[in-house]
Amino acid sequence: MTLIVKSGFNGMTDADAIAYVNEVELLDGEPLEFAVGKAINDFVVGCKLDGIWPAIKASCILAGARTLAGALVPLVGAAPTKFGTEGGWTYNRKTGLQGNGTNNYLNSNRASNADGLNTHHTAVRLTNSLANNQGLSGTVGAGAGYSGIGRFSLTYFWSRSNNNALGAAVGTNASGHSGAGLYGFSRASSADISYKAGTVAVTTTALASISANSGNTLFFNSGNNDNYTTSQIAFYSIGEALDLAKLDTRVTALITAIGAAIP
User: Fold this and answer.
1) Angstrom distance (rounded) from CA 103 to CA 88
2) To 10 degrees, what angle do helices 34-50 and 15-28 make?
3) How confident is the model at residue 225 (pLDDT cuts 50, 70, 90)?
4) What is the largest CA-CA distance in the chain?
5) What does the mean pLDDT of the chain come to?
6) pTM of the model as a whole
7) Which of 11, 47, 171, 241 could lock 53 by a disulfide, CB 3.0 to 4.6 Å apart?
8) Radius of gyration (C-alpha) of the chain in whole angstroms
């Protein structure tokens, strides 16, 4: 076991944040900067104050850690498994993890139907952009009950939660739906979903649930080992329905603080 020696108050007060940072530092082999640890602590505390923390069942902060191994430590839930070309991953402590766009992806190791049919969210935080015909996340196996996030064309963002993969998608503004920001969906009813895409505000649209696919949620592709993305993802979460606007505010503050803390 590697002993990480610390001295004095490190700005951390939350038990969940402290446990997470301790595990990251164990894999990194050295402590994080004071301000990085403080940013993580503030994020967890903020999510708890907002009432959205209990809905987050699987999550990774894919930034801040000194190594990729440290970045894959789960903040909540199961650790993800990475697949594809080992040298194809690009990790930047400030901006997150980037795949190669051809075969690299993360398996969250959380089944898409682990949460209720009508209480379900998935979200990712991009720090660059979402290119045409690329997927950010998706359930293994298409068809009925599919859930995912991606972009089909220069003018069409899509987000689905526990509905037919061939059914309606949502979003049209190419300029707003392609830049840095939070992308995701939250289903809190059988009749509609809320979605967030880049700089576009949270929008609710009719999209009925029909079933929940049992496949795991993948990141960096559309879930069927296609439509791989070259986007940089700095955070992801999966779980029950939550307020996407509140999550966006907390994640944006987290990534901004991490970027400012690292030389």
Assistant:
1) 9
2) 150
3) confident
4) 56
5) 88
6) 0.92
7) 47
8) 17
